């Protein structure tokens, strides 16, 4: 039986071998394929935290917890030692001020100066805003996550158990329009399955984080609804490797997958807003070494 991580590696090979070479928004360029799927069975608590390179799963889970707060400023992330969102506000700050500040110094200013953080650490109405505070035409806010949990508890056969972040009216105000944009859920035999559609999938850097973060979310939602995790189905639209990631991809493809780790919640949180990183326990994670690569902004 093939290791489930081979789905990811097969896709990486396909992008390298058959991907269309494209000039993209960042100017870096990509090899791109359109349309992909991977399925992961979570029933034994085995989770798709990749083993052919180290994935910093705590960072991915912390990011997911931040999304759930509805936050849109990088300051709380930096306070939690998460720096994966710094590139976009830093680029905006440099462009608008002409100050060639280093990332380290920019982050220290955001951490040390609340007024500076409010002005320059803001990302606009990104994921968390749309998930927890989507504003309708009547001005009423909609908490998509709370509504989803109510549906899971009260009507688990519904085909409307969906939330998303592609708010057309607010895209222009976002530092980065949502990549993992639609989440749909399905309940059968007491288990919660999740399908996540990702319109833009950075295969080397983004997708491994999205796997880990989505599974953590799925576990939290399942617990809140009195369910067990079922299957995680990932779907990608534009699935790509940046041209400056090809050597790193080849290195990853040279490695054999190792056994998946397990992920468990160590306590039953009072609500979806009550989870902390300490509630997640990952065991048996023994990956190959990390592979460094630059983020394309």
Which structural class should the secondary elements be placed in? alpha+beta
Q: What is the CATH topology of the domain at 6-70 and 161-283? A: Thymidylate Synthase, Chain A
Q: What distance lies between the first and last C-alpha atoms, to the nearest angstrom? A: 39 Å
Oligomer: single chain
What would you note in describing this structure?
The chain has 10 helices and 10 strands. It is of the alpha+beta class and 297 residues long. The strands form 3 sheets. Strands 1-2-8-7-6-5 form a 6-stranded mixed beta sheet. It has a two-stranded antiparallel ribbon with strand order 3-4. A two-stranded antiparallel ribbon has the order 9-10. The mean pLDDT is 96.
Quick synopsis:
By secondary structure, this protein is of the alpha+beta class. The chain contains ten helices and ten strands. It has a domain at 6-70 and 161-283: Thymidylate synthase/dCMP hydroxymethylase domain (Thymidylate Synthase, Chain A, 2-Layer Sandwich), CATH 3.30.572.
């Amino acid at each position: 039986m093939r290791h489930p991580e081979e789905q990811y590696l097969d896709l990486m090979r396909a992008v390298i071998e058959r991907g269309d070479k494209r000039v993209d928004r960042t100017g870096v360029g990509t090899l791109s394929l359109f349309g992909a799927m991977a399925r992961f069975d979570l029933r034994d608590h085995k989770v798709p935290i990749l083993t052919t390179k180290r994935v910093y799963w705590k960072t991915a889970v912390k990011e997911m917890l931040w999304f759930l707060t509805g936050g849109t400023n990088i300051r709380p992330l930096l306070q939690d030692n998460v720096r994966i969102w710094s590139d976009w506000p830093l680029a905006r700050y440099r462009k608008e001020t002409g100050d060639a500040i280093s990332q380290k110094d920019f982050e220290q200013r955001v951490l040390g100066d609340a007024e500076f953080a409010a002005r320059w650490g803001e990302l606009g109405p990104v994921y968390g805003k749309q998930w927890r505070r989507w504003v309708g035409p009547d001005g009423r806010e909609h908490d998509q996550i709370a509504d989803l949990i109510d549906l899971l508890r009260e009507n688990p056969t519904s085909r409307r158990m969906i939330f998303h972040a592609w708010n057309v009216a607010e895209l222009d105000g976002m530092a980065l329009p949502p990549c993992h944009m639609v989440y749909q859920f399905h309940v059968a035999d007491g288990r919660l399955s999740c399908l996540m559609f990702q319109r833009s999938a950075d295969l080397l850097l983004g997708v491994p984080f999205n796997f880990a973060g989505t599974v953590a979310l799925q576990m939290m939602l399942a617990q809140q609804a009195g369910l067990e995790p079922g299957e995680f189905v990932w779907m990608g639209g534009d699935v790509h490797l940046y041209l400056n990631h090809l050597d790193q991809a080849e290195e990853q493809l040279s490695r054999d997958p190792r056994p998946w780790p397990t992920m468990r919640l160590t306590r039953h949180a009072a609500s979806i807003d009550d989870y902390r990183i300490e509630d997640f326990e990952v065991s048996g994670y023994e990956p190959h070494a990390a592979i460094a690569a630059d983020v394309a902004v």
